[in-house]
């Protein structure tokens, strides 16, 4: 069996796939915001989604606050949000 790699690369960049990926990333971000530790609210408010294109479209959930790395290392908030949403499928 031989796969049509060009087809799968095109599919991975298609508008439909991008919409599904963006929706999943937004669900993860919403979970992360809901469970984020709140001191000033800057970390929670900095959680956002973005996408990038390589061979296929990839959705990312990131936190842009200056303290995000410290908060993530202590709480694992983004990782927990991803796991929680992976179980929901």
Verbal overview:
With 89 residues, this protein is of the alpha+beta class. Helices cover 61% and strands 16% of the residues. The chain contains five helices and two strands, in the order H-H-H-E-E-H-H. The protein has helices at residues 5-12, 15-35, 42-46, 68-75, 77-88; strands at residues 47-53, 57-63. Strands 1-2 form a two-stranded antiparallel sheet. Strand 1 (47-53) and strand 2 form a beta hairpin. Helix 2 packs across helix 5 (77-88). It comes from Agromyces larvae. This is HK97 gp10 family phage protein.
Topology:
Layout: H1 5-12, H2 15-35, H3 42-46, E1 47-53, E2 57-63, H4 68-75, H5 77-88
Number of strands: 2
Q: What is the approximate shape?
A: elongated
The portion of residues assigned to helices is: 55-70%
Strand content: 15-25%
SS element count, helices:
5
Separation of termini? 30 Å
Computed over alpha carbons, the radius of gyration is 16 Å
Strand order of the largest sheet: 1-2
- Biggest sheet statistics: 2 strands, antiparallel
In N-to-C order, the SSE pattern is HHHEEHH
Structural class: alpha+beta
Low-confidence stretches: none
Overall mean pLDDT score? 92
Protein name: HK97 gp10 family phage protein
InterPro entries: HK97-gp10_tail
């Amino acid at each position: 069996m031989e796969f049509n790699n060009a087809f799968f690369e095109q599919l991975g960049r298609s508008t439909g796939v991008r919409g599904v990926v963006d929706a999943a990333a937004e669900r993860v971000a919403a979970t992360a915001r809901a469970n984020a530790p709140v001191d000033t609210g800057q970390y929670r408010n900095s959680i956002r989604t973005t996408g990038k294109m390589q061979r296929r479209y990839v959705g990312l959930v990131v936190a842009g606050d200056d303290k995000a790395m410290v908060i993530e290392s202590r709480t694992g908030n983004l990782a927990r949000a991803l796991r929680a949403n992976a179980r929901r499928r």
